[in-house]
Amino acid sequence: MSRVTIIIPCFNAGDYVVAAIDSALAQTYADLEVVVVDDGSTDARTVEVLDGLKRSRTRIFRQENAGPSAARNRAVREATGQFILPLDADDLFDPTYVEKAMAQMSASSNVGIVYC
Length: 116
Prior knowledge:
By secondary structure, the protein is α/β, with parallel strands linked by helices. The protein is built from 4 helices and 4 strands. It has a 4-stranded parallel sheet, with helices on both faces.
């Protein structure tokens, strides 16, 4: 089983990011980690939520605001997985998403990306 890193860039998403993280951790695919990059959030809610977050297999990084692409790139650099799946901070994964994505990646050597 190959490790998957779910990357979540986050900016002022305190009302949503915990649900996104929990949906990533609720996957039927077991070997995964979640990397969240707070891209310089300016709202107290996001800072408070991420400071208090205690989830296994989850790492949180902070950086000055540089935009979503920079936050995703930072998350990729911090990832330990062989495969990367992006998830926005205000979105959710179905519990079988990673399992299905990995099945597609494994089905053919011609598949280089799976995205919903």
